[in-house]
Every structure is written in C-alpha cells, then in structure tokens.
Amino acid sequence: MFALVLRLILIPLTRVIYRPVIEGRENVPRRGPVILASNHLSFIDSMVIPLVAPRPVAFLAKKEYWTGTGIKGRIMRSFFIAISAVPVERGTHRAAQASLDASLAVLNEGMAFGIYPEGTRSLDGRLYRGRTGVAWLALTSGAPVVPVALAGTQDIQPVGKRLPRVRRVTVRFGEPMDFSDRRDLKPVGPVRRGVTDEIMDAIHKLSGQTRVAAYNERPSEDAA
C-alpha cells in the first residue's frame, strides 16, 4: 500500500517539478510484454522512464536496495517496489545469466521491461555499442522492442553528485520493433548481433548522440 501511494505521489510531483518533454508515448503498447531499450546517461534514468511511461516499467536493481534497515531502508525498498524494480545480484557470469532470466520472467508475465543495451551509463555522453542481451530477450520472449532516447538526465544527477538537481529532461519513445520472424534463424550469434545493431540504430536516430563502435567498458573501481 505504501508503495502504491508513493507511486501515485511521485508521478504527478515529478512532472510538476521537472516538466519533462515526453514524445512518442503512444508508441508504448498498453498491454502485453514489451521491451523498452534505452540509452543510459545517469543513475536516475531507471526512475525517469517508469515515471513518464504510460504503464509500469520494470528495471533490474541490485539486491542491496531491498535489504536496508530502519526508516531509510524501508523508504528505499518501497521506492523501488513502487517503480516495479526487480532485485538481482550482480558481479559474476552466473549473476549475468540470472539477470537475463529475471528479465525474461517479467516479460513472460506480460509486463514492460526496461534495459540499457550499452550495459552501463555513458560518462562522456556518447552512444556505445550494444550488448546482445537485449536481442536474446527479444528473440526468446517474442516481445516487441520500443527504442527510447533520454536527454538531460545526466544534468539532474551528474556522476559523483549525491543529490539530484532540477533540470528539464526529454524522453522520446520510438516506434515498436518486431523481431519475431527471426526467432528460429541460425546461427544465433550473428542473428542476435544484427538485432542488437538495429535497436542501437533506432536509439541513435532518436537521441542524435555521437556513436562509438566499441563497448562501454568501465574501470573496475568505478564499476564497484
């Protein structure tokens, strides 16, 4: 109940304070499984998208957000429940597959799921090569993919800043992409790579970011 009340308060309050520019909201299917594949500029992206989308959008979040104690822990836990976040462990290959399995479970329940194909947020504002987990999800689940482009979220909570600032952001939802006709194609590696590249092309078209042909690799201490 607390999480529901929090969501009912957060959505209108966020729109009043930040006055986000939202484009293409009608492109998000109102029912059934759908993957929202977005560029990634800030930690706050996983809060912005669920608050402006026309339906709840689940994101993965580290399990520690659910294990805090006291009032702060309860508020944090309720907040992530309110935005439909899914708790997962991170840091190992087994955890990576577990994350994909948790994502697939969300889609199999007919929900919307948000993912960042770049893997981690861009520190320089450029758009990096997408990892093929998004294609695995799309091909395995049969869910359509809606490309999403965020702009300005890096100014709300820049890297290294603990408190968010009031800045206007733009969220663009592109037209759904259907890859169901490629679910049984072989070999799977090139098929997944091709699907991922098409998704990244669509995100780039919406965001206008400078493209980078390499993966977005982060220093180990920064990732930690």
UniProtKB/TrEMBL annotation:
Keyword set includes Ion transport: no
Segments forming domain Phospholipid/glycerol acyltransferase: 34-153
InterPro entries hit by this protein: Plipid/glycerol_acylTrfase
Molecular-function GO terms, alphabetical: acyltransferase activity
Keywords assigned by UniProt, alphabetized: Acyltransferase, Transferase
Xref: Pfam families: Acyltransferase (PF01553)
Protein name, as recorded: Lysophospholipid acyltransferase family protein
Organism of derivation: Streptacidiphilus cavernicola
